[in-house]
Design goal:
The protein has 266 residues and is mostly helical. It contains 13 helices and two strands, in the order αββαααααααααααα. 71% of the residues lie in helices and 2% in strands. The chain is globular.
Length: 266
Amino acid sequence: MPELTLGAGAFGVALVTLPLSAAVGRRIGALSQPSPDRWAITGPVPRFAGPALLLALAPALDAGRLLALLCFLVVGAVDDVRRLPPAAKALALLPGALLSAWATGRWEVGLWTYVLAHALNLLDHVDGMAGGAVLGSAAVAAFLPGPDGRLAAALLGASAAFLRYNLPPARFFLGDGGAYLLGAALAMAWTPAPPVVALAGMAVPLVDTTIVVLRRLAGRRPPWVGGTDHLGHALLRTGAPALAAPLATALAGGLLPFLAHVVTDA
């Protein structure tokens, strides 16, 4: 199957190029100091996975969607090196969303790439959590009728390779560039599917983001200011093992769209 070839190719490319991206991240200062809510203090960790992940996804993309994802990546990569104000980032991501809509001829693709880019970035608050969500969701999208199976297969391979370096204790973080890229790509993969199934495929980051935003607004705090009020932090406080977060998001990311497909196809 072409999807299997794309997935295997994306896995191989990402596995080889992610260490190179990490080296570049260290050199240009795209580094994070993990806090205790990531379960392990490992010293400065590079947060520059985006370039390697885009290279892995490229064979599954046409020129228009590749350019759109590059726009998401560039905004996040700049923020990984030199922090941008939240409003500036929100505006800078709009060209990527507009290009997504233009490249696919569907306005809703532009909307969901913009929303899911932000949502996956917020979900990336515990080692392996965002990568696990993409892995589980893409695994189902690659084989269901409706989604873009080629892009989903590439996402599956790329996220599996990334988790090789990102499972706790992480040696490499997505960074904003990687999170924006994977979120937008996941939206592109799911939006051709029936709306209920597509929404289920994107549900894990969307649910976490919705809960966090509502909590912060209720507490009269700006939604864009970080905190320890995410689903992953709640899981951590139960004393769950470090691998619980990526396993939970991978299972939920795959199970929800599969059940939605079964129900809507019945």
